[in-house]
Design a protein that fits this description.
The chain is an alpha/beta fold and 312 residues long. It has a single domain, classed as NADP-dependent oxidoreductase domain (TIM Barrel), CATH 3.20.20.100. The chain is built from ten helices and nine strands. The strands form two sheets. It has a seven-stranded parallel beta sheet with strand order 3-4-5-6-7-8-9. A two-stranded antiparallel ribbon has the order 1-2. α7 runs antiparallel to α10. The structure holds NADPH dihydro-nicotinamide-adenine-dinucleotide phosphate (NDP) and D-galacturonic acid (DGU). Pfam families: Aldo_ket_red (PF00248). Its EC number is 1.1.1.307.
Amino acid sequence: MAVADVKFKLNTGAEIPAVGLGTWQSAPGEVEKAVSHAIAVGYRHIDTAFCYQNEHEVGQGIKEALASGKVKREDLFVTTKLWCSYHTRVEEALDASLKNLGLDYIDLYLMHWPVAFNPNGNHPLFPKLPDGSRDIDHSHSHVTTWKNMEKLLGTGKVKAIGVSNYSKLYLEQLLPHATVVPAVNQIENHPALPQQEIVDFCKEKGIHITAYSPLGSTGSPLFTAEPIVEVAKKRGVGSATVLLSWHIARGSSVLPKSVTPSRIEENRNLIKLDESDMATIAKYTDDLAAKKAFQRFVYPPFGINFGFPDKS
Ligand SMILES: NC(=O)C1=CN([C@@H]2O[C@H](COP(=O)(O)OP(=O)(O)OC[C@H]3O[C@@H](n4cnc5c(N)ncnc54)[C@H](OP(=O)(O)O)[C@@H]3O)[C@@H](O)[C@H]2O)C=CC1
Ligand SMILES: O=C[C@H](O)[C@@H](O)[C@@H](O)[C@H](O)C(=O)O
């Protein structure tokens, strides 16, 4: 089996395809084509979110792919996410996402960030206080949000629920109260931010890791990082292949974003990294750790300590 066709088992018994197309910041007019192209060339996993404001177009791309007759809805794994301003309106948010996507169920519904915004603030997605800071409802716990997400499983509108941007600290707050253990924790993950503590903790608890910003996000410096280039040269592939294949070797799924057809194709060109490749990347990671030089590319200004060791 090609490495890109690997699937990982979730704690629900369902399988998540190892490579999913990311769609954050995929512009209108581009993302529909990106999604339909991705599915046409073999992707079976698409990641979006209510706050990306592109669910409708993502849904159009899925519809186009389904109309080709080559794939069926049940062949696809679609993830979307509950946005922070909807933590007190979980089912309403899910219904809005389903309507946007034109689907009657979601394979995986994630709590996007463990923080609730004021639902009655000055903006439906990004409410702010007069001082410009995010308008956060500090009285609302992410644990309450999770308990409400658990109720969604009975509606048939979601196959699995999970979390995103959860540190070990936040999972330790959540798990004692959870009836349903999250199926997935979607976190920023790449060799310059290995998040080993969370990866190990999730493994122990049966929570699958999905890696976001695996290429280092927009304008990434990772493509030219020397050890990545070294492994890429040795294996006769591009840096993207090395960066993405690293997750499969760790047992994680991965979400490369692209709206460029050739890159969408390249990002499925995964290989099985061998011990010496992994050792070269581990040395890079260890050197960054020793220098306290991990790189986190996505840390929006929530003004909250999420408990990530590189940020506290
Ligand atoms: N849960 C969460 O909070 C978050 C989730 N995510 C999810 O993860 C996905 C991926 O993360 P994201 O931050 O978008 O960044 P990625 O790490 O996927 O990097 C995307 C960037 O890399 C470029 N690129 C893609 N493939 C290649 C390639 N083969 N060679 C060179 N450049 C390439 C893209 O350009 P172009 O498109 O122009 O080709 C884009 O600029 C998101 O789209 C989203 O779905 C991301 C961040 C946070
Ligand atoms: O999924 C991608 C990211 O988490 C993105 O949704 C956030 O960074 C958001 O733009 C924000 O500013 O809080």
